[in-house]
Design brief:
By secondary structure, the protein is an alpha+beta fold. It has a domain of 31 residues. Helices cover 11% and strands 21% of the residues. The chain is built from 1 helix and 2 strands, in the order αββ. Strands 1-2 form a two-stranded antiparallel sheet. The protein is globular, with a radius of gyration of 13 Å.
């Protein structure tokens, strides 16, 4: 995994961020209602992926 800086997002007072356009493009586009999933690796790194949530 590259350690090169790619994009940033500023956190609002409500703890929200806007997904940068470059990241949206890498995710294959992001639309209202899409889920962005957050994963943690064993060494504590966080990464994101666009995905679906299975209903319970």
């Amino acid at each position: 995994m590259s350690k090169e800086f790619f994009a940033s997002a500023k956190v609002t007072v409500r703890k929200q961020i806007a997904i940068p356009k470059k990241v949206q493009e890498k995710l294959g586009g992001v639309e209202e209602g899409d889920y962005i999933l957050f994963y943690e690796t064993p060494d504590g790194k966080i990464f994101i992926k666009k995905g679906k949530i299975k209903p319970l």
